[in-house]
């Protein structure tokens, strides 16, 4: 886990984190990782956003959707790997209720 103390470093890291997924562990600084370890970046969320994220994640598991992530405190959810699959953005509990009404039984 990493905690950023400088906004400039954090922003640069977040803007390049897609590249991180394509990097091999051997390309990273010495972090005591094995070559088979996955690397994840987690951003700090407010207690309210953590609650919303937890509820979205429960719904994602129930609906068997594949992806959930955050970026700049916004919660994104996506059904599959296809580029044409819609990415849904959920910011509040109200957004979650609207999403459930559109996509769930």
TrEMBL record:
Going by the entry's taxonomy, the superkingdom of the source organism is recorded as Eukaryota
Annotated protein name in UniProt: FP protein C-terminal domain-containing protein
Q: Which InterPro entries match?
A: FP_C
Q: Which residues does the UniProt record annotate as the domain FP protein C-terminal?
A: 46-99
């Amino acid at each position: 886990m990493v905690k950023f103390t400088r906004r400039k470093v954090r922003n640069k890291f977040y803007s390049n984190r897609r590249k991180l997924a394509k990097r091999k562990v051997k390309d990273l600084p010495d972090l005591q990782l094995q070559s088979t370890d996955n690397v994840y970046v987690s951003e700090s969320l407010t207690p309210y956003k953590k609650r919303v994220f937890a509820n979205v994640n429960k719904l994602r598991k129930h609906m068997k959707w594949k992806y959930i992530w955050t970026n700049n405190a916004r919660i994104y959810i996506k059904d599959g790997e296809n580029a044409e699959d819609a990415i849904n953005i959920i910011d509040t509990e109200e957004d979650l209720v609207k999403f459930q009404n559109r996509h769930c039984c």
